[in-house]
Amino acid sequence: MTSRNIRKLVRTGLAVLAVVPMLALAACSANGASTTPNAAPSDGVLTIGLLGDIGQPPDPDVYYANNGLAIVLNTYEGLVQYKNDVDTVEIAPRLAESWTVSPDFTTYTFTLKSGVTFHDGTPFTSAAVKSSLQRRVDVDGGAAYMAAGVASVETPDDLTAVVTLSEPNSAFLDYLASPFGPKMVSPTGLAANAGSDNAQTYLQTHDLGTGPYELSAVEPGAKYTLTQYDDYWGTKSPFTTVELPIYSDVSSLQLAFDKGDVSAIVAALPSSSLDKYDGNPAFNSDMLPTLQSALVTVNPSKPFFAEKEARMAFMQSIDQKKLVDQVLGARSEPATTLYAKGMISDGSDKQNIEYDPSVMADYAKTLPEGTPMVVGYASGNTNAEQMANIVTANLQTTGIKATAQSYPTSQVFGWANDPTQGPDAFIDGNNGPDGGNPYMWGHVFWDKTGGINYFLCDDPSTDADLNQAVKTGDEALFAKAAQTYSATGCYLNLSYNKDWVVSQKWLDGVAESHNIGANELDFSLLSIAK
Amino acid sequence: MFRFILRRTGSAVVLLLVLSAIIFVLQAVSPGDPVKAYLGANASPEAIAAKREELGLNAPLYAQYLRFIANLLHGDLGQSFRTHRPVLTDLQSFLPATLELVLFSFVVAVLLGVLFAVSGSLRLKGGALFRGPLLLLAAAPPFLLALGGIVLFYAQLGVLPASGRGVDSSSPTGFVVLDSIITGQPDAIGLTFQHLLLPGVVLAIAPAIAIGRILRSSLDVTMSADYVRTAESKGLTPFAVLRRHVVRNSIGPGLSMAGLQLGFMFAGVVVVEQIFSWPGIGNYLAGSIPVSDFPAIAGVTLVLGTVYIVTNAVVDILQVAADPRLAA
After folding, report:
1. pLDDT digits over A298-347, tens only?
2. Cβ–Cβ under 8 Å, residues A157 and A102
3. What is the dihedral of CA A288, A291, A295, A297, to 10 degrees?
């Protein structure tokens, strides 16, 4: 052996020696979770780890994304919310004690809670309802539509607000209960900090809500800190401070949680971590109901799915139960309805696509050998990636040259501008409506003007039925709209997804602090186990 | 020397203009929809169309580019679609963290690199015990090294923190070490260095080897030169030979490599910042790319491009200072 070869061998050996211990360490971190519970904090600090920065500012009229809701929902409150700790869509009081709805769904009268103050000391009255709804329209953010239909807000007294809509809308209470729905913002604080942008700059680093916590420190990219509001009207938790450090890497977040530096992780861990935490006696692992689903949509603008026959054959080729069990496990259950679970009370939105791979196998025989098909998924969504891989592997057995491909989220949302740029089909690992009304589901997923109908697969009669049903709240019409859309073959509701919350053993009240719409916890309802 | 600096500055400006044009074209041809990042995923097409108009995204590409350049000349990098803050504000917030990490890391890399080179070149006893593990660590990709470091020093031994900067990032200058020193907080100084150590060393390992190897081979060549042997035969001490005759004649390639590595470190910091949740521009960039936040991407790219160009210009100037023949 020449000296050159010896050097080469030594170098290779060194590289292997370097990599092997690292892999061992990484493997150790992946499976070596302790089974001894960490100690509860004695300083009143609750630490909720965020995976990634919140992105948009935590202004309730601007924020329209994901994990920043932890800040918005604990610093601001709306008139109503979804009921906590139930797996059904039920409206519950928050700043409104009670309400009445006119039979034609145009007038909503709210009786407000007394003794509520904003964080700047301003008393909460009906005037704040009026100014808050107006600000939502003026700021014109992504969820401005929720207040766009408000024609007027009358304030006959401090504790009564009468909201009149420009046209009937049975979903209006759901708009208000939505985590993205209008929140009450101090009119005094808004006026004092209005600037030239309706106080948007001010609310990037401050809050003007009535919630149990105040936004006390903002370190973009690093940490957000909430401090308990002393004059809060509701329940107070033993946690006087809530810190929300940002972790950019899921492994780092898990290690911090394992060591007890993080108290809880809300809906941020991949299914691959289920083995580590679910059933581990050192931690709590809660699977909590949501309105979210995994979905399959197909692109009728692509030649492969131009015909309904192909779309239906594809949907029938998906072994929904196996796919959901295999990839999502305990975090999910196979969906049996077209809307989210329980949205239609009598279950008449039953999904009627039965698994039958022979239909696709027969259809594939009519195609030229090796006909290509691309199944897309959003980059970074490991669950969707796994599902896309399984679906394409099954399709390959029929002779179709199916491939799974990842797309950045901005590209996914850009397809609606030109669906021909998209893949043939897309698997959405987790998506959902803003609220629990069937209209909010049907409109966003099925109507081409809804926002998440990526491939603009549209059926005018579905749109018409949805638009009519929202005026009357007619569930039968909502169910009809769903069945009509399902018949296009463009859509399959794969699973009812759950929020997976892992927390330290000492943390109590996780389920009680969560509701089906929020995807976040109400920190004021958390406590330390005795 | 003045003409040399002027020439380098001029070419740097041209390079940055070309860089900005490339980013602009890439943004225009990419199929993403940045307005969704601004308004949120479920925003209606009507709201998106209105916002696109408001943000000027419907204007022809050349008009958008000219406006971008005009704003740039006024120090306005636009508003981030994601954070809704001016990009300049975001950069002021995130850049100090990155600069602090990279500069710390660079110092570590140079120190390790010089030790690597000198111990090898002078055949110091036990030097292999230092060089071997360093080579071993450099063979691992940075993300694995980072994860391994976190598992070992944070999760297992509990001696070092694994994320963040340790103290409030929104300190007066943004440089938390500097602010801790200025405000005389010894505890904070210790804490910030603790947080710097793991990401700093991870980022420094590979550049240290690159610098060390080049420097060592340069030292070896110089050490075997006739004038060095002459100096030794004159009875000069090894240190005097090293200081007067070897270092000055060997430093050029090492300096050049150090400059190159500093530029690479700014690029490589994205991965390290991600794993250590370091609130710098690498993390900011990583969050901006998936949502096509063009103003933020352009801002970070221009900053990184400027740093790279300035670093190389400084290295060129230092090399000319060391050897004036290179200015010709």
Report:
1. 999 999 999 999 999 999 999 999 999 999 988 999 999 999 998 999 99
2. no
3. -170
Residues A186/A208, Cβ–Cβ less than 8 Å: yes
Check residue A34 and give its pLDDT: 66
Q: Where are the alpha helices (DSSP H) in A400-437?
A: 409-414
| 3-state class (DSSP) for residue A335 | coil
pLDDT at A14: 44
Digit-coded pLDDT (tens) for A258-309: 999 999 999 999 888 888 999 999 999 999 999 999 999 999 999 999 999 9
On whether the CB atoms of residues B19 and B302 are closer than 8 A, the answer is yes
Question: How far is Cα A212 from Cα A233, in angstroms, rounded to an integer?
Answer: 8
Distance CA B243, CA B246 (A): 6
- Distances from the Cα of A213 to the Cαs of A54, A77, A96, A235, in angstroms? 17, 11, 19, 11
Give the pair of three-digit tokens for residue A164: 């009149």
DSSP for B31-91, please give it: ---HHHHHH-TT--HHHHHHHHHHTTTTS-HHHHHHHHHHHHHTT---B-TTT-SBHHHHH
- Determine whether the interchain pair A221/B93 forms a contact, defined as Cβ–Cβ distance below 8 Å: yes
Query: Looking at per-residue confidence, does A201 or B290 come out higher?
Result: A201
Alpha-carbon dihedral A171, A172, A175, A181, rounded to 10 degrees: 180
Cα radius of gyration (chain A): 25
From the CA of A19, how many Å to the nearest CA of chain B?
6
Q: Where are the domains of chain B?
A: 2-73, 94-327
**How does DSSP classify residue A214?**
E
Q: Is the ipTM above a cut-off of 0.85? A: no
Q: What is the DSSP letter of A67?
A: T
Both tokens of residue A335?
A: 């969906």
Check if the beta carbon of residue A277 is closer than 8 Å to that of residue A257: no
**Of the partner residues A56, A223, A256, the one whose CB lies closest to the CB of residue B84:** A56
Amino acid at B180: S
Q: Which residues of B touch A22 (CB under 8 A)?
A: 140, 144-145, 147-148
Q: What CATH number was assigned to the domain covering residues B94-327?
A: 1.10.3720.10
**Pairing mode, if any, of strands A150-157 and A160-165?**
antiparallel
- Give the up-direction half-sphere exposure of residue A468: CA atoms within 13 A in the CB hemisphere: 13
Task: Pick the residue of A9, A72, A223, A249 with the most B CBs within 10 A to test the interface with B by mutation.
Answer: A249
Q: Cβ A219–B170 below 8 Å, yes or no?
A: yes
Q: Which of B8-17, B35-44, B177-186 has the lowest mean pLDDT?
A: B35-44
The phi and psi torsions of A375 (rounded to 5 degrees) equal -105, 115
Cα separation, A483 vs A351, whole angstroms: 8
Q: Which residue of B has its CA nearest to A18?
A: B136
pLDDT tens string A9-55: 444 444 444 444 444 444 444 445 567 888 999 999 999 999 999 98
Distance CA(A462)–CA(B163), nearest Å, equals 50
- pTM exceeds 0.80, yes or no: yes
Instruction: List the single residue in A26, A55, A64 with the smallest CB-CB distance to B144.
Output: A26
C-alpha A380: how far from its chain's center?
16
In A102-252 the beta strands, taken as DSSP E runs, fall at 107-112, 150-157, 160-165, 213-219, 223-228, 241-247
Bridge partners (DSSP) of residue A289 are A498
Q: How far is CA B265 from CA A296, B100, B270, in A?
A: 42, 12, 9
A200 chain-B contacts, CB cut-off 8 A: 84
Residues of B in contact with A450 (CB under 8 A): 44
Give the largest Cα separation in chain A, rounded.
96
Q: Do B147 and A245 touch (CB under 8 A)?
A: no
CA nearest to A21 within chain B: B148
Query: Do the Cβ atoms of B149 and B198 come closer than 8 Å?
Result: yes
